[in-house]
Specification:
Layout lengths: L24 H5 L19 E3 L11 H13 L3 H4 L9 H11 L6 E4 L2 H12 L5 E6 L3 H7 L5 E8 L2 E2 L1 H9 L6 E4 L13 H14 L2 E5 L15 H4 L4 E6 L11 E4 L5 H9 L7 H13 L3 H27 L4 E2 L8 E2 L2 E2 L6 H11 L1 E5 L15 E4 L5 H15 L1
Parallel strand pairs: 1-13, 3-4, 3-6, 6-7, 7-8
Antiparallel strand pairs: 2-9, 4-5, 8-9, 10-12, 11-14, 13-14
Helix pairs in contact: 2-11, 5-6, 5-10, 7-8, 12-14, 13-14
This protein binds 4'-deoxy-4'-aminopyridoxal-5'-phosphate (PMP).
Length: about 400
């Protein structure tokens, strides 16, 4: 047997051209923000006042308490466990605390990484690719982005001062339209500030049972009522057809990324299996601290909420008063009963809203134009502004309205 020399190429190896990585069709199809969330529309002024997002005020968030909680947990020997894996459902103590507050079986609670996570899990678990989802018109735009995950089509349903027009939906269903889900924000709607009436809640749940669709009730502002009457949540929790999506974002801080679903019992396992394939579980560390505060300080959450509601009530009233005094006759305004949004309507239909927004931006006030929330015809949203007051001081609100007044010229 003759040994042969390994052949060496006479010229250095040429590396083949790189094969480009192609993102999935799903990822390529995801849209970039237009209008809503578009940074290029922000005022260039460094002193611009932003009445933009549903953002809680830092003074209403538990900054000192979280520091204390960390010390207490550490002193009690809980540090090491807080950095370990934990169960997919979420902490038992946290689920139990939420379940008691909601008045439901703890097995129905799934801890999530905030509201958006709960929404996408729900959509992926319950909406078949290409199915129709009835949505608020106008709607919280980021929900539309979760629908891109399943290529859902939308059926816009007008939103009235007392929430989704359930009769409109009933007519569409009676006409043969079939939907997989309806999405609505029942309390202190984003952007329209109103609350779904008790009668409409009952009617919606009845429709869901009759036609076999899920109601996705997205309720992040529910705890922030500072006026008016609660319209009830029992009817949602008692239904096999409702997924209640909630979050600590507006009450304890969006950076925690902590929320929960109240699922009908028959959906718990399927949503859990889906969740297992995404992120395993919510942060053990965050759950440790939040659970510690909620469980070891009875009444603390309500005291925190009480202060927050007072603050937001004050700001809402101040903003309304400033609009009425600095811009008399310019807007139809309804005093909010909770949440973070004012949804004033321009009285004069000849006002060019795009031009107004441009001038306002030049004056140093940022707000969301109503048109960015529109999901279909039959809404006056284009004649409205969404003004978010949650994280703006009194002085900022006054100055912001003064700047808006100058923008009118
Ligand atoms: N739903 C609505 C209606 C919201 O306004 C928000 C926050 N802007 C969310 C969901 C998202 O909440 P999170 O930050 O907990 O994901």
């Amino acid at each position: 047997m003759t040994l042969t020399e390994p052949t060496t190429p006479d010229s250095p190896t040429t590396t083949p051209p790189p094969v480009p990585l192609v993102p999935s069709v799903l990822a390529q199809g995801l849209t970039v923000p237009k209008g809503f969330g578009d940074q290029s529309l922000l005022s260039p002024r460094p002193d611009a006042i932003r009445l933009l997002g549903g953002i809680p005020d830092p003074s209403a968030l538990p900054l000192a308490e979280l520091r204390e909680a960390l010390g207490e947990v550490w002193d009690a020997g809980g540090a090491a466990a807080s950095l370990q894996y934990s169960g997919s459902h979420g902490f038992e103590g946290l689920r139990g605390w939420i379940a008691e507050r909601e008045g439901v079986d703890p097995r129905r609670i799934l801890i999530t990484n905030g509201g958006m996570h709960g929404l996408s899990l729900t959509v992926q678990a319950l909406v078949e690719r290409g199915a129709v989802v009835a949505i608020d018109n106008p709607a919280y735009p980021l929900f539309l982005r979760t629908l891109e995950l399943v290529g859902a089509r939308t059926l816009p349903v007008p939103v009235e001062p007392d929430g989704l027009d359930v009769e409109h939906l009933a007519r569409r269903l009676a006409d043969g339209e079939r939907i997989a889900a309806v999405y609505t924000v029942p309390d202190f709607h984003n952007p329209t500030q109103g609350t779904l009436s008790a009668a409409k809640r009952a009617a919606l749940v009845e429709l869901a049972a009759r036609y076999g669709f899920v109601v996705i009730a997205d309720d992040p502002y529910r705890e922030l009522r500072f006026a008016g009457t609660d319209q009830g949540r029992r009817v949602f929790f008692d239904s096999e057809h409702v997924v209640h999506v909630n979050t600590f974002t507006k009450t304890l801080g969006p950076g925690l990324r902590l929320g929960w679903l109240v699922l009908p019992e028959h959906l718990v396992d399927v949503v859990l299996r889906l969740r297992n394939r995404q992120d395993s579980h919510s942060s053990t560390f965050v759950q440790t601290l939040v659970q510690h505060l909620l469980v070891t300080r009875p009444g603390w959450f309500d005291t925190t909420l009480g202060r927050a509601r007072e603050l937001y009530r004050h700001r809402a009233q101040l903003l309304v008063a400033e609009l009425r005094t600095q811009l008399p006759g310019r807007f139809e305004v309804t005093e909010p009963e909770g949440g973070f949004f004012l949804w004033p309507r321009l009285v004069d239909d000849s006002v060019d809203t795009a031009a107004l927004h441009k001038r306002a931006s030049a004056e140093g006030i940022d707000y969301q134009q109503g048109e960015f929330f529109i999901t279909g015809p039959g809404t006056d949203s284009a004649r409205r502004l969404r003004l978010a007051y949650g994280d703006r001081t009194d002085a900022e609100l006054r100055t912001a309205v003064g700047r808006l007044a100058r923008a009118f010229g």
